[in-house]
Amino acid sequence: MRVVAAMSGGVDSAVAASRMLEAGHEVVGVHLALSQSAATLRESARGCCTLEDAGDARRVADKLGIPFYVWDMAQRFKEDVVEDFVAEYAAGRTPNPCLRCNEKIKFAALLDKALALGFDAVATGHYAQIVEVPDASADGGVRRELHRAVDPAKDQSYVLGVLDADQLARSFFPLGDTTKAQIRAEAAERGFSVAKKPDSHDICFIADGNTRGWLEQRLGERPGDIVDTEGTVLGEHRGSFGYTVGQRKGLGLRVPAPDGQPRYVVATEPRSNTVVVGTRDLLGVDAITGDHARWCGPAPEGIVTVGAQVRAHGEEVPATAWADGDAVQVRLERRIQGVAPGQSVVLYEGTRVVGSATIAEAGRA
User: Fold this and answer.
1) How many Å apart are CA 88 and CA 51, to the nearest integer?
2) Which of 151, 234, 271, 327 has a 20 to 30 Å separation from 60 between CA atoms?
3) Is 204 labeled as catalytic in the residue annotation?
């Protein structure tokens, strides 16, 4: 196969490219330029898309002896990921930009361009597994399923839950059967200079990790009230977009709770520009409605038993789920806390990813 290896400049994508080459594929390395003002040097482990990263990717490609290109997708990234991120927070939701980037950039824009140029597939350094199983609907054919990685600490199947069957058919994740420690050791054996390079984490386009400050620069200060569930004003905020359900720190309440117990954000209401706080027990939910459903294969028929996960490295909770038109209904076997609209719920059957949806509502059944 002719394969585009997405090379971020990190150790994972370097080893992924080398494994695809060893497997006998014709591999071309591609670095995605996603920043419209890429820094010369990486300032922290949070950032990415620096000129340093592009240089690291090129050096690995040179060592492997494969062609290497930089594809400019900064404008697409700005529109589909960054601007979406700002709009979601302004609307009182808590988005996951990594899922949006995988959906809109790496497995839409990148894959579409690769296919248009005559390539067969895209390979990335994500920690997840593709498993081929017999497909009864195709004579002698197989179906590709998305499964968790063997290393639970690095498993990234959650952020890949937005991929559909057609995208999975043209995707490779060569690292899914390996632990991170083994990947670093393999990179060192191959002589890659990135073998000990720190991982990037958190939100890649907010290098200092200060999400509230970053949003305030773009949305401006929007002072409003922090209230309890009865509407009593307890404090002020500079913008409801700076708060998310389940948050406890940084509330700055001037009125202590009568029982002395801590308060948590239980809702943000952008229309009235208020932040609602309450006791911890109010955070528990067991009923989720998700929209923008994405299935990693056939949509489930009827009510199915699944595991539901609402954070990238959160726990999986036993649940039942069913498709409801373009929406998904999920009922958890027990209540969980800190579930906010805008987050994604990803459904599993064993280690297999069934699909995902964006949380529209969360409450109690």
Assistant:
1) 29
2) 151
3) yes
